[in-house]
């Protein structure tokens, strides 16, 4: 009897210990755990700036090839790979994928052991004898189709997480472009102010020469004041340039001291011609809308799961009783062990709770569908506003480049010529210089605002509206990509259509339903 008892106990312990084997740690999690232990041992606020450990708190260094003048595509590729918001969304998607096997698995089986060490107080059977030990193993089985519905709901959660990843990538692309155009404007403004400062310094020299011919000292002082004003504006522009570079560095996860520069000349982007096409593209490609649809699909599965609670869960198992003739008062006891089957189920009799669960799930589905409608209406509004903004910026930019700027340059040339000839006063010459400077800065600002407006419009629509043919093609990014919305040739802002990787069918976002 003791041998059989030890054998059974060893088998049970072996089964229990097999479930304690844990997978290896991910490298990323091991790094996080090490950082947490280091922070607990030495919190960041206890490290003085002059200590060697303070270098661990410094910003990330700039990788080779990222500093200096770069196209926006270079920064976008680096941001999609290194931006911590995108990485967080990517690991969140990975976490949601690991929920599917958890939702579709059965609950752990239950093992129950009963020991009666005292024969006088233990079960006694006249035919079998004394029962010192009883083992029962049971497994609960949900009603038919429950696990499948749980898995489908978890798959919809994965789809929603994949769209969150796409939204994070679109956010980074938009922010990089907006920061890039801010850097571009401030670089242009710095160059324009520097050029105009040279012209103002030439005017100072010219005014001093005219002073010898009988003009007043006021012209010299006015010219010197113009130089001082330009120096003041240069200080402001350089401050804004540093802030724009810091904003771009944040998206790239590099030090804000990095020498990030835009190209000296950028092609003028074209504004979209038809707003109706933008509406369709936004509904088909915007990841937030597709995420809302995935949430509605998940809620539909939750409704079906709530209805499954009207049916019982079945518990089945095996019972084993160890019998012995020792300490048995019956002379007829043969000591044969007992083996039995166990079947049980719960009784879903509380109807109010069941009805409330179904109503709650239905209400959540309706709420998510209304959130989709609200986001769709918000998308229409944002598309219209940004379309009008981009169109207005483009029209005003054309007016400045084709009319206002050439005339301002001609006025300055005529004023300088007349001043040399002595037929024009110095105030008119300075006014012409300031007017040309204002128009040049306004043209640079309009180019930047047009690029920023189109970047915001691309973020709402979910596809790239303008592509520089001379720019290198970005590398494909990890994670599912949005399919191209019909009927347009525009594509994802991350990569060309020809290089877009095909994701698994189960992980690919389902796009097409508009929820009208």
Question: Please, could you describe this protein's structure?
Answer:
- With 516 residues, the chain is of the alpha+beta class.
- The chain is 59% helix and 9% strand.
- It has eleven helices and seven strands.
- Strands 2, 3, 4, 6 and 7 form a five-stranded antiparallel sheet that branches. It has a two-stranded parallel ribbon with strand order 1-5.
- Helix 3 packs antiparallel against helix 6 and helix 6 (146-211) runs antiparallel to helix 7 (218-252).
- The protein starts with a helix and ends in a 55-residue tail after the last helix.
- Mean pLDDT is 82; it is low at 468-516.
Coarse morphology: elongated
Helix content: 55-70%
Element-level helix/strand string: HHEHHHEEEHHEHHEEHH
Major sheet: 5 strands, antiparallel
Please provide the count of β strands. Answer: 7
Structural class: alpha+beta
Strand content: 5-15%
Number of continuous helical runs: 11
Task: Give the end-to-end Cα distance, rounded to a whole number of Å.
Answer: 72 Å
What's the gyration radius in Å?
37 Å
Mean of residue pLDDT values: 82
Low-confidence runs: 468-516
Secondary structure layout:
Blueprint: H1 2-18, H2 27-41, E1 68-69, H3 72-82, H4 84-97, H5 99-103, E2 110-115, E3 124-125, E4 129-141, H6 146-211, H7 218-252, E5 260-261, H8 275-285, H9 287-308, E6 314-324, E7 338-345, H10 351-421, H11 426-461
Parallel strand pairs: 1-5
Antiparallel strand pairs: 2-4, 3-4, 4-6, 6-7
Helix pairs in contact: 3-6, 4-6, 6-7, 6-9, 6-11, 8-10, 9-10, 10-11
